[in-house]
Amino acid sequence: GTTSVAAPPTNAAGGLEKTQLKVATLPAIDSAAIYVAIDQGLFEREGLEVTPQVVQAAPEAIPMLIKGEIDAMFGNYVSMFAAHDKQALKVRILAEGSRAAPDSLSIMALPDSPIKTPKDLEGKTINVNVLRNFQELALTQVLKANNVDPASIKYVQVTFQNIMPSWKGGQIDAAYLGEPQVTAATATMGARKILDPASGPAAEFPISGYVSTQEWYDEHPKTAAAFQRAIHNAAKLMENNREVVAKVLPTFTQIDAATAATVTFPYFSGNDNPVRLQRVADWMLEAKWLSKAIDVKSLMSPTTSG
Amino acid sequence: MSAQTLTSIRPASPAIRWSRRAAGAVAFAALIELISRTGLADPEFLPPATEIAGRAVTLLADPAFRAHALTSLLAWAIGLAIAALVAVPLGLLLGSVPLVDAATRSVVEFLRPIPSVALIPLVALVIGTGLQHRVALVVYAALWPILYNTMYGLRGVDPVAKESLRSYGFGPLAVLMRVSLPSSAPFIMTGVRLAAGVALILTVSTEIVAGRGEGIGVFIFFAGIAVPARMADILAGVFWVGLFGVAVNALMVAFDRRVFRWHHVQRGEEG
Amino acid sequence: MRRGGLRTAAFRVAVLLVLVVAWEAATRAAGSAFFPPPSTIVERMHAMWFSGSPATLFLTDAAVGDILPSLGRMALGFAGGALAGVVLGLALGLSSRVYDYLDGVLQFLRAIPPPALVTVFLVLFGFGLRMQLAFIMFSIVWPVLLNTADGARSVEPLHLQTGQVFRLSRTERLLRVVLPSALPKMFAGLRLALSLSLIVMVFSELLPGTTNGIGFQLTTAYVTFDLPAMWAGIVLLGVLGYLLNEVFLVVERRVLAWHHAAQRLT
Amino acid sequence: MLEIDNLSHVYGGGTPNAHHAIEGLNLSVAEGELLCIVGPSGCGKSTLLRSIAGLITPTGGQVKVEGNVVKQTPDNLAVVFQDYSRSLFPWMSVADNVALPLRRRNMDKKQREDAAREALESVGLEGAARKYPFQLSGGMQQRVAIARALAYRPSLMLMDEPFGSVDAQTREDLEDLVLKVRGHHQMTIVLITHDIDESVYVGDRVVVLSKAPAHVVGDLKVDLPGPRDQITTREHPDFVHLRAEVGRLVRGHATV
Amino acid sequence: MLEIDNLSHVYGGGTPNAHHAIEGLNLSVAEGELLCIVGPSGCGKSTLLRSIAGLITPTGGQVKVEGNVVKQTPDNLAVVFQDYSRSLFPWMSVADNVALPLRRRNMDKKQREDAAREALESVGLEGAARKYPFQLSGGMQQRVAIARALAYRPSLMLMDEPFGSVDAQTREDLEDLVLKVRGHHQMTIVLITHDIDESVYVGDRVVVLSKAPAHVVGDLKVDLPGPRDQITTREHPDFVHLRAEVGRLVRGHATV
Ligand SMILES: Nc1ncnc2c1ncn2[C@@H]1O[C@H](COP(=O)(O)OP(=O)(O)OP(=O)(O)O)[C@@H](O)[C@H]1O
Ligand SMILES: Nc1ncnc2c1ncn2[C@@H]1O[C@H](COP(=O)(O)OP(=O)(O)OP(=O)(O)O)[C@@H](O)[C@H]1O
Ligand SMILES: [Mg+2]
Ligand SMILES: [Mg+2]
């Protein structure tokens, strides 16, 4: 591909243990980096040929990873750490992926709802995509910071497609939305933002990253490094350039070009930072979702990109 | 259906019967239209039948959708075929050798209620996630109706008929194949019809929950994660699945009436 | 007879034991976290559900909170679905008019994958029990319906004629001639529906807004990778399925005693 | 009572295997008459019976019972089917089988049970009431079917070879039973039999049918003196003569 | 050929409704003999037949066929069931029904078809070969069952009221057919009938059974001169005498 990027040092394809990779991704904005990296020829530059495989939810990719059908997957840290803790999977984080940006997640109420402030959420029912996942983890911290008792919130699991009907039908009091639903709800329903679950203590909360198994990493250290570089380079490219993202979104999500131009993107990580990721593991431990502490740094790969 | 029904109504002419069928379908569509148009259900989530139908027609022209449909069809057909090939002999065995039935029953009945959602990851771990994954789950679900109908069908075989053949010195296997099997075949066929529906449901459901690549279920899943969800697409997909179910059932009924003509004619269901 | 019964019982236990031992050995050898050995699963089941106080029959709060609501949903769904299946099946099997009007629509509905209709169920029934029951019934009604219709259509013609000749009323013919004849086939459908109701119960507990139940526990365990807990749920379902089936067979043996005797099955 | 007018029946009409079972059959039976029908195997006797009972719609002509054209099964009719064992309900005890049709009568449970018991006694099955049909021998099943029809007290009774499976002694008893019941309850009876002696012994009239397609080839009034008796009646010269006559008709040598 | 030794059978043994169908029955049939069995309805004749055919295991005593105790169905045996209509397979044409048992013989398809056609002809059903059993009248179905047994050429043939549903003329033809076939193919035949004349006419020996539980109350050798003939044999004084004798035995007046 043609590129206007400041070219990072290019490695020769030689020396890579494996050049053709299959990576499971999700049909969501968070997965954009890998598509941008493909689109912009960043993998090619590292001597890699990456084939993304869209799965419907991250847990499905885990058997594929274990069975070796894929080399790496894009998954959220809460799931990954839980799997690691239960020894279902020895996780190795290849590269950080996305972090919550302001307004990319939102607790929203319908225009005529009595809920006006975060305090009004107390005792209310809120949807999450999956129970005991990052949505709850982040919101708990933010609610605490807003003097709302997190234990009083009733979470119900509602699949993506059914959030709107449940919300309109009054089965949930406030909706926990991500993009592009935030934009859509604001524009078409006049929904009001009550709270940003990724603010205050949970600001820039890391959501998902690219992971493989420890064994895979041990066998393919150079490939892993090359992969990480490409992802980081993509993230850097995306930082100030909405168009490269907007261009790929319609190819793997259900977001059309028009919407892609207006939605709020998460942050894509241009480098790996064990400190912010450790927060996730610590909060999970605090919520007793982990049986013992995880030293996140030991699961991460050294950053080799510039 | 039958001349000897409770009311002994003479069979209606094909024209009348087809118009009744059409009336039934139209009434059903009208009901959906009504629920949607009157706002009984939010039309955003349950679009009117006319809109669904319109969308269904345009979908058919879409090569991508046809590819989805073909993939699902393949998984369905393979799964159903394997299920039938396994379940009928197994049903004959369990239905005719009580000891085997008794011995395996605890295992069979233990395995049976395990839902495929729980199996999805486990099957994926064991045999991978390709076509074989869907097929395995379809087989697992479609097996039972055929198996049970075979076992129960065998019990309905007239003992005098079985004894007739036995008295001519035929062994148990010959009696099974020449009397029990043909005699219970119509009911086994009903089991296959049931299984065809179950297999269709399982194919699409598995795709919705854990499909990759292609399949009607994958199509439905993606329509569902759009914002706002493309309900007309989802229901148009559902429409084609349902219609396929109707077609398969009709084919099987036609087959049934042809091959088991003795069974129907005897009951006054001429034709 | 009696001794034969004991022998098959012993045989069954032996088969079961061999399989469990094989399972234990295989899972230990494989050492995969996804396939914990049965001993681990049983331990987990005990800890989760059956370590309660004697006052609650050793059931823990979790057991009361998960197993009972699930069984309740299942029972209600099964009863409703079975009833609907029998009624519709008889109507379809007996009246060519009803058959013509409804068959197409029913065959259409029968092929529809319920997961694709969750949104529709949601807007029609709302969260919770109503939607779950609708979901269960919608799924299990078909085997009962089709088999009952088949049974009603295959009544010995001479039986129908006898009823007709003696001018039995419609209800009498239905209840005393058609229903008993169709009963053996209906039971095949009911037995299918019974285990199906257990399966669909689990599915229904994945529906939006569910907060308890075996299915809920099972999926929560999976998404948090608590695999022994997931397997505990699977095994519990298996055990429940087995027990329900045994109860079903006892009922069937009573209700269909005439059939088994007349068909020289025993 | 019963008028059969130019009756025809074709099975599988329109198909290449169409079979003309009955053609242009005329017959009338008076109130209270006991008509015996004899004819070669497969000629169409059962078909005729089913037309009278409204179980099949004849393809031509019509049947009138008490002046009304038969479209559905007429009221107060009972049939003893040739295939008696299949006409019993296997899920009911023998007593219940017999009592079932009585639901159409204004009888309470007790009365129905009594009537069933009485009917079973009259056919010599008092001991079998609580048994199920499959526990009975062929002849016993046939007697249950007869008891069921008798208990019903129909005004028109159709019997298709009702005594085919019982021993000689029982057969005679049943013949006399039918004669007795007919006398008591003013029944009209149409009885199909292959036993020529029987047809003359029980019948007021014997109708002989031809080979398929069936039509009437002989219609004999049986005018035997006094109440019938198994010994004396059968020795009566008229009986012997009539029997020979029917025999000749059946064998295809019409006398007239 | 056939030895029945102290045979007993109890249905539902151990239950309160146990029924003693047969008790201490002894009987032997020589090779090539045609034995007729008569006895009251429900006495246990069909039960006896089923024991010989190995379809039920008697609860006491034993049956030997050609010296071997019957545990399973003996070879070269054919049965015409009393419940003939249920013994035919509804999914097969009449010809196929008749041809099916011939698969046990070393015959190719053509030979089987020929044998079936021939057997059907011999019972007067040449026209019905392609029909299905439900398209036949009762008597025709019964003849199909007979044809099936005849075509099989068994060495031991068991017939349970095989001519109950056919007209007098056909019945006589079938009686003669059985006699002819027996002569040609050296069959041993056990035939149950309720027709006393028939038992004497076709039988080499007539055995009379008692009321349930069945045992032998009479065993008469039928010694009629020359080949049997429907007219002359039935007029023969020995025939008349034997017939009366059997009748008395059946009615419970043993002569000896
Ligand atoms: N359902 C049917 N389809 C076609 N043909 C039939 C059907 N039922 C009867 N037949 C034919 O009609 C003719 C008359 O049959 P029917 O049963 O009336 O005879 P039948 O006089 O009662 O004989 P039988 O004395 O043997 O009982 C027979 O040749 C038979 O083959
Ligand atoms: N399966 C059974 N269970 C219980 N009792 C039975 C069973 N079969 C037959 N019986 C009884 O055994 C007795 C003899 O029956 P069987 O059929 O041998 O009589 P049969 O001599 O053939 O009579 P028929 O001349 O009426 O056919 C009858 O009283 C009958 O009630
Ligand atoms: Mg007849
Ligand atoms: Mg008998």
From TrEMBL, chain B:
Transmembrane segments: 73-97, 185-204, 216-232, 238-255
Biological process per Gene Ontology, one example term: transmembrane transport
InterPro entries: MetI-like (IPR000515), MetI-like_sf (IPR035906)
CDD domains in alphabetical order: TM_PBP2
Taxonomic superkingdom: Bacteria
Localization per Swiss-Prot or TrEMBL: Cell membrane
UniProt keyword list: Cell membrane, Membrane, Transmembrane, Transmembrane helix, Transport
Pfam families: BPD_transp_1
Family the entry assigns: Belongs to the binding-protein-dependent transport system permease family.
Name recorded for this polypeptide: NitT/TauT family transport system permease protein
Species per Swiss-Prot/TrEMBL record: Nonomuraea maritima
Lineage of source species: Bacteria, Bacillati, Actinomycetota, Actinomycetes, Streptosporangiales
TrEMBL record, chain C:
GO biological process: cellular response to sulfur starvation; transmembrane transport
Subcellular location: Cell membrane
Keywords: Cell membrane, Membrane, Transmembrane, Transmembrane helix, Transport
Gene3D superfamilies per record: MetI-like
TM helices/strands, residue ranges: 47-68, 75-96, 116-145, 189-209, 229-251
Main location class: membrane
Listed GO CC annotations: plasma membrane
Record has Transmembrane as a keyword: yes
InterPro entries named in the record: MetI-like (IPR000515), MetI-like_sf (IPR035906)
Record's bilayer topology term: Multi-pass membrane protein
Record CDD domains: TM_PBP2
Domain ABC transmembrane type-1 residues, every copy: 67-248
Family: Belongs to the binding-protein-dependent transport system permease family.
Protein name: ABC-type nitrate/sulfonate/bicarbonate transport system, permease component
From TrEMBL, chains D, E:
Occurrences of domain ABC transporter (ranges): 2-236
Signal sequence interval, chain numbering: none
Family annotation (Gene3D superfamilies): P-loop containing nucleotide triphosphate hydrolases
Pfam families xref list: ABC_tran
Key words of the record: ATP-binding, Nucleotide-binding, Transport
Gene Ontology MF annotations: ATP binding; ATP hydrolysis activity
Protein's UniProt keywords contain Transferase: no
InterPro entries: AAA+_ATPase, ABC_transporter-like_ATP-bd, ABC_transporter-like_CS, ABC_transporter_ATP-bind, P-loop_NTPase
Protein name, per record: NitT/TauT family transport system ATP-binding protein
Organism of provenance: Nonomuraea maritima
